[in-house]
């Protein structure tokens, strides 16, 4: 639901104006209609925001002066604030973006020869408590607004500069940063709509990927709303091990998760599904488990992405040996399961998968528990 314009009341000292980054094309047109403006005006403003990175109505030269003044009075265009940014030796760029007075999230851009991928966060922290993920140790604070999600893409796109579409450096977005995107459904879907809109960032559906730890009913809901690519964080081929690594598995075990994936591809035949599998030494990298995975992969047309585990302070897990990763991949490939190994990028600036921490004011007390475990020496500090 989009917020209607607030009525201006004399008794209020400050009125928070709607932030245009919170609206997709239809929402923006409705908002403009509510102040008596034509839909094409909304489209013009959208182009200024996303194609030219302009946030000041005064600079929108093809919008009449009267409308510019009306817009300035009623609405705002506010991107997230950059707290700091860092560039890795391999070109990976990380932003810490301040979302409010006390919380910040991380966004990472990974340039490659033929594409550039932005890893976007959906929540401040995460509530799912996956054992091997650094974000989990931070606890959870809140969902990001649609403006805070699309704002991450905007900050990165502005940094990369205005270039003709075919030379664009930002070609892919993965919702694989901090948080569980399907637990922030409406805002994520709205932000993804701007990512794919020609008046927004104009990315093809298959170049926008939503990654989930496996919220079965929300995967079904997503299939109604969009045909973005789906990444499913599997990490184990049987329920016993998966429940240990991804506690959500207790609620939605593997058979149900695969059922939802089958329904997703049936409903969205053009969408692809990738199963992510973080490789942890001695935990989930044995050949027997690769053989179990082959059997699961027969059920859904998909590919597997093996992610060498990225360590963080306090974790009890270690990265699998390269040879074990290769053997695991070979078992899958020999059984005709398309399998890639993700190259680790940006780990010198803690920007690799699972290393994003941001700055989270935890409302779950998980951080306190994690620190206590560290103090009691139950985990090996890296
Ligand atoms: N909640 C969503 C999106 C965030 S995680 C999800 O679970 O998919 C994005 C990806 O990074 C997931 O596949 C996740 O399992 C992986 N990941 C998390 N911690 C990691 C680590 N320490 N090393 C490597 N990959 C990790």
Describe the structure.
The protein has 382 residues and is an alpha/beta fold. Helices cover 34% and strands 16% of the residues. The chain is built from twelve helices and twelve strands. The strands form two sheets. It has a ten-stranded mixed β-sheet, with helices on one face. Strand 10, helix 10 (287-297) and strand 11 form a beta-alpha-beta unit. Helix 7 (216-225) packs parallel to helix 9 (254-267). Mean pLDDT is 90; it is low at 378-382. It binds S-adenosyl-L-homocysteine (SAH).
In short:
The chain has 382 residues and is an alpha/beta fold. The protein has twelve helices and twelve strands.
Largest sheet: 10 strands, mixed
N-to-C span: 45 Å
- Please give the share of residues in helix: 25-40%
Which strand order spans the largest sheet, edge to edge or round the barrel? 1-2-3-4-7-8-9-10-11-12
Annotation, overall tally of beta strands: 12
Gross morphology: globular
Poorly predicted runs of 5 or more residues: 378-382
Q: What is bound: which ligands?
A: S-adenosyl-L-homocysteine
């Amino acid at each position: 639901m989009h917020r209607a314009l607030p009525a201006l009341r004399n008794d209020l000292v400050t009125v928070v104006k709607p932030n245009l980054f919170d609206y997709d094309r239809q929402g923006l047109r409705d908002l403009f209609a509510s102040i008596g403006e034509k839909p094409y005006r909304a489209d013009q403003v959208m182009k200024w925001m996303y194609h030219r990175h302009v946030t000041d109505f005064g600079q929108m030269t093809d919008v009449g002066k009267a409308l510019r003044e009306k817009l300035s009075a009623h609405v705002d265009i506010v991107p997230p604030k950059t707290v700091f940014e860092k560039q890795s030796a391999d070109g990976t760029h990380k932003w810490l973006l301040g979302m409010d007075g006390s919380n910040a999230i991380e966004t990472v851009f990974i340039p490659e020869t033929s594409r550039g991928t932005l890893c976007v966060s959906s929540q401040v922290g995460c509530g799912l408590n996956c054992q091997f993920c650094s974000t989990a140790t931070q606890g959870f604070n809140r969902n990001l607004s649609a403006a805070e999600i699309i704002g991450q893409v905007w900050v990165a796109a502005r940094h990369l500069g205005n270039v003709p579409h075919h030379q664009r450096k930002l070609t892919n977005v993965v919702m694989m940063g901090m948080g569980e995107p399907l637990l922030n459904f409406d805002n994520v879907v709205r932000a993804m709509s701007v990512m794919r809109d020609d008046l927004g960032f104009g990315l093809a559906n298959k170049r926008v990927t939503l990654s989930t730890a496996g919220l079965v009913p929300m995967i079904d809901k997503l299939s109604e709303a969009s045909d973005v690519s789906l990444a499913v964080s599997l990490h184990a081929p049987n329920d016993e091990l998966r429940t240990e690594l991804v506690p959500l598995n207790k609620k939605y075990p593997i058979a149900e998760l695969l059922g939802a994936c089958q329904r997703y591809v049936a409903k969205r035949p053009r969408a692809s599904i990738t199963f992510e599998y973080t490789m942890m030494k001695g935990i989930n990298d044995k050949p027997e488990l690769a053989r179990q995975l082959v059997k699961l992969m027969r059920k859904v047309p998909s590919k597997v992405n093996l992610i060498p585990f990225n360590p963080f302070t306090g974790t009890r897990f270690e990265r699998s040996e390269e040879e074990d990763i290769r053997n695991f991949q070979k078992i899958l490939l020999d059984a005709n399961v398309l399998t890639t190994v993700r190259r680790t990028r940006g780990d010198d600036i803690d920007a690799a998968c699972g290393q994003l921490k941001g700055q989270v004011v935890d409302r779950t007390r998980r951080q306190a528990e994690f620190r206590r475990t560290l103090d009691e020496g139950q985990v090996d500090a890296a």
